[in-house]
Amino acid sequence: MTERRFEGVGATPTLGVGTARWFRPVDVTDLDEPPAPKSVDPAAERERFETAQAEAKTELETEREHTRERVGDNEAKVFDAHLQFLQDPQIVSGVQEALDAGVPAPHAVKTAFEGPIAQFEGMDGMMAERADDLRDIRDRLLRLLTDATRTDLGALPDDSVVLAELLTPSDTAQLDPEAVAGLATTKGGRTAHAAIIARSLGIPAVVGIGEQLDEIDDGTDLVVDGKDGVVIADPTESTRTRAKESTQTAVIDEAVTTGDGTEIEVAANLGTPAEAAPAAEQGADGVGLFRTEFLFQDRQSAPDETEQYKAYLSVCETFSEHADDPRIVVRTLDVGGDKPIDYLDLDPEENGFLGARGIRLSLDEHADLFESQLRALLRVAATDAGSGLSIMFPLVSTVEELEAALEVVDSVADDLDGEGLDYAIPELGVMIETPSSTYLADAFAERVDFLSIGTNDLTQYIQSAQRDLDRMSDYQDPLAPAVLRAIDRTVRAGHEGGAWVGMCGEMAGDPELTQLLVGLGLDELSMSAVTVPGVKAAIRETETERAEALAESVLAVDTLTGVQELL
Ligand code: PEP
Ligand code: MG
Fold this sequence. Notes:
Blueprint: E1 4-7, E2 9-12, E3 15-23, H1 42-70, H2 73-86, H3 89-100, H4 105-121, H5 125-146, E4 160-164, H6 169-174, E5 180-185, H7 193-201, E6 205-207, E7 221-225, E8 230-233, H8 237-247, E9 256-257, E10 263-270, H9 276-281, E11 287-291, H10 293-296, H11 305-320, E12 328-331, H12 359-362, H13 367-381, E13 389-393, H14 399-418, E14 427-432, H15 435-439, H16 441-447, E15 450-453, H17 455-463, H18 481-496, E16 500-503, H19 514-519, E17 524-527, H20 532-540, H21 544-555, H22 560-566
Parallel strand pairs: 3-4, 4-5, 5-6, 10-11, 10-17, 11-12, 12-13, 13-14, 14-15, 15-16, 16-17
Antiparallel strand pairs: 1-8, 2-6, 3-7, 7-8, 9-10
Helix pairs in contact: 1-2, 1-5, 3-4, 4-5, 11-13, 13-14, 16-18
The structure holds phosphoenolpyruvate and magnesium ion.
The site of phosphoenolpyruvate has 10 residues, from strand 11 and helix 17.
């Protein structure tokens, strides 16, 4: 039998080998024609709806706890959003109006969700994915109202590769990483909640494969290659062996060097303090990017200085138990663009990615949040566990912004001094995410200790292709020559200015690119914790001189396919 390849988008950059098991939930929206209005009792239907709503709430709360324990606080937050949608006044009043008019509860629910789902579907990127969340809640209610049975995704046989049209966050959170060897879906993008949960559970996943996935029958042998974004059906023995070997990368607890002794720090990207311990257990030397916005999302108001102090300190403490002097890079609030926060009342913008986001908000309308965050960070930096804490500013695009941010750091330090509180000004750094910042890297390097390249945004801006649009995925490859040249320019300028240069975009976590990144001169690579062992192993196999020669030849190529062929 010959191998068949199904291309999609890699959501978890690991590989898995197993057997196809289709998950086809019953279509609960396929309802019978409603009976004539007068033949149903509105009071009984209202009670039926309220019971289903209460049951849905209990289910969601249980799943939130389950996800919090197994995956993390951050991923559990999707269930908070679902709980809010469940009580959304617009939807609930829509249901009630239909019930009052004598419509049976299931039909009332189906109709009341139609408008809000269509509204989100008409939006771009991450907002469009909220339509999936709404469908998830609607279908939960319909399942409860129609007594449809639910497939138990938590009880699959070992080595299952789950195939589905689209998994909801609730479906994905049920998956047991011990039993599930992989996941592949027809629809969905990298930033859908289901993909994020799969990544946190360390389940190899490829999403957005399209209708051709239907050609795979239950029971087919599969390799899910989340690195290359491909599912291979009926793999040959050598493909299986290669995949199996790469799934068995052992954790390397100590710092690593290349074969010839160049030290490369391998750090983890975190969203919440709860992710610190699992990341340290994967052998991360420290944290290269703590995305603090997750502390601010899905709640009614911003965390105060004390809550932030505890959160940052706890990450530092967790890592100090695993490593000597770990570096913990905390990024100041990076909201706006694709990361909305309701209580901040950010002005809606036609193109949020080019609007008020990242440091721009911290220096303007949200200067108060920036100050309280810096106060918490400077205080943690003065503790024993916090001695390796570093602060990084997101989306800096001008020297003026950086200077303004540094002035705020100084003035916060003066305030803390005046109040007699312990504080320390730690290492400071800048994210390189915009084209302008790559041209100014030398000027930044003279003013801060380090630069960290965020290839997710950098690729979006250099290639002028929105990062969360599936349609633009051909442009979103960080191996595009223009992106590689921007990285090269940044590393050189950073080093000349005396700064160390790291990378914390997704590119850093691909072991197949490690040799190239070492050759480009990066000092630190920061990534999802699951990819740390593979990258550490790849660094040990790298020889600096050969890596530099590879980087030089790659930089000379001017097409993406040329680069891919060379690699
Ligand atoms: C990046 O842009 O590469 C990055 C690491 O930041 P985020 O993905 O949080 O925007
Ligand atoms: Mg970014």
